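hey so i finally got around to running the thing on that chain from the lab meeting. sorry it took forever, my laptop kept dying and i had to restart like 3 times. anyway pasting the input first so we r on the same page abt which one it is
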Amino acid sequence: MDPYYICGPTASGKSALALEMARKLNGEIVNADAFQLYRGLEIVSAAPSEEERSVVPHHLYGVLEPTESADAQLYVKLAKPVIEEIQSRGKTPIITGGSGLYLKFLTHGAAPLPTGDAALRAEMDARPLEELVAELESLDPVEASRTALQNRRFVSRALEICILSGQKASDLRDQWESKTAEISSQLQGFVIQRTREDLHARIALRTRAMLDGGALEEVAALSKISNNFEKAIGFREIRSLLAGETDRGTCEELINAATRQYAKRQETWFRREKWLEPKVVQDFSPL
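ok and heres what got predicted. didnt touch it at all, straight out
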């Protein structure tokens, strides 16, 4: 069976809806959340509970050590064999999470654009913006016409693609967009959408439950960690609380604020990508 995707911002109810769809589609759940990959961060990352995991098989939860680094390419390397194994047993992989880049690499692959070149970028940084714009307009007038030419970073990146690839950046981008549109049309699933008020209320409830439910002890038990691990929302805030640098109320509000900001970035990303249909949810209560 083809994979089924349930995506959306943090605290929108993905895990609960994934369970519901797994029952309907004879499926097994595959994690697509960057921090739920880690062992020892189950409470802070709001990973599915043992009770939830007992309902249907869950995969790729707690598979990395806190000291390990992870990125979208590693995630794909971990996820593809799991998905194929689930399919080999006639089951439907229910892939759920809010890590947009991980999901995009899994579904569409990496964009065929050259990576940055430090030496070339240093050389461009030393040149006037007007000179870079003129070169881009000469090499790739189409890309120049759709680039914010007052933004040095955008101009430099477009020019870098042209120089390193030997092709027009506009051609490479158009080919990639055509390919991704074809892939997107074949995907099954949805992106959860909630009202801002509803989502913020759910975030506040989850933060309170996290702090009351053992998150402080979870963070206190961790010692050596990777830079990736440290970026989990709530981790630094709780460490400050444990160190006596802040109080419980301030810690809670800082986590709420950071989570709201993250959720907004996730919503923006999914709206821009448009490769899954939105599903407006208003009355589905489980976190």
